[in-house]
Amino acid sequence: MIEVKHLVKKYGEHLAVDDLSFTLEKGQILGFLGPNGAGKSTTMNILTGYISATEGIVTINGHDIFDEPEEAKKCIGYLPELPPLYQDMTVREYLNFVADIKSVKKNEKRKMIDRIMRMTKITDVSERLIKQLSKGYKQRVGLAQAIIGFPEVIILDEPTVGLDPMQIIEIRDLIKELSKDHTIILSSHILSEVSAICDKVMIINKGRLIVSDTPDNLSKHIGGSQGLHLEVKGEQADIKKALESIPEITKLEFEKSSKGGIVKLSAYSAEESDIREAVFYALSDAKCPIYDMHSTKMSLEDIFLELTQEKENVHVSKNSNRLFRRSKQKNEEELAALGEEINNQESEHKEEN
Ligand SMILES: Nc1ncnc2c1ncn2[C@@H]1O[C@H](COP(=O)(O)OP(=O)(O)OP(=O)(O)O)[C@@H](O)[C@H]1O
User: Fold this and answer.
1) Atom of ligand 1 nearest to the CA of 41
2) What is the CATH number of domain 2-221?
3) Spelled out in words, what is the top-level CATH class assigned to the domain 227-300?
4) ipTM passes above 0.85
5) 215-234, pLDDT tens digit by residue?
6) Which of 42, 45, 51 to mutate to test the pocket of ligand 1 (most atoms within 8 A of CB)?
């Protein structure tokens, strides 16, 4: 459906998109995530044929956006970050105008516009001038114009920005509804939004793809080792002994504060293993009752920060799991080097004294 290969965009010497490749199948919702200036809008503007690329290939439904722009653009509806609304038109006039540009057949036009106005909940304001509408309504009109003609692909740049919580929920529901018949790409820097509605997430930073996976897999794999927070009644030594009998546990961290005989700790295991049952039985055998047990998996927020705050030369990999191991290894190497440096400084200090 959408294929992007080795996309590069330079503004003068500035590399805004750096060798970006991805594919998207029909009916998927792709969340394009990245901090300010990551290259999201630039990529979307290239996909929709608004701006040219420096290098690379983009095909929409088999049509090359650069060689067959007319054909490719027919398959796309676009809501840019700042929707190009004609403020002095009424909502209906504007949607009529968009339908004409998109060559919607005359006999289908009215029915289609009425349907789309119902879907985007703007029927009530159909005869109002766009300049008199609130921000939320303007955004809905922007979305309505993107849907006119029911293109196969709908691209939405920050679709919920500036909306109130109720409007955000409505727009999200509408996007989900649209995904039944359309392929959708949306950009956002709101992680909860992306994890709530997208099938696939692509995190980009400084124009480069950092990771691409489902929201679930991102939490599972990039979260790396899983932590289990525990509150257990008993002696720390007994609890430690019981938990150390579980081979999957890689690390135990006891908290200093323990009140009323309750010991608080975190038990870590390899990313794929679920140790909850083993923990339950081991502590039960040791007569140490569990008062609380919950997983401390990394949230998508943590993952995003971890990945986008990586050093410049982060390894790009489709496999988030591998990527995390690499970055983790890198952090460990850096920590080891730092430790060595501190040791050296300490021994130098001792020698001096
Ligand atoms: N027309 C332009 N000329 C020069 N540089 C540009 C132009 N448009 C964007 N850039 C630069 O390219 C980089 C990517 O910008 P882009 O707008 O694509 O990022 P973004 O991820 O959409 O950010 P935001 O979330 O802030 O909208 C930024 O460093 C930006 O300053």
Assistant:
1) 22
2) 3.40.50.300
3) alpha beta
4) yes
5) 877 766 555 557 889 999 99
6) 42
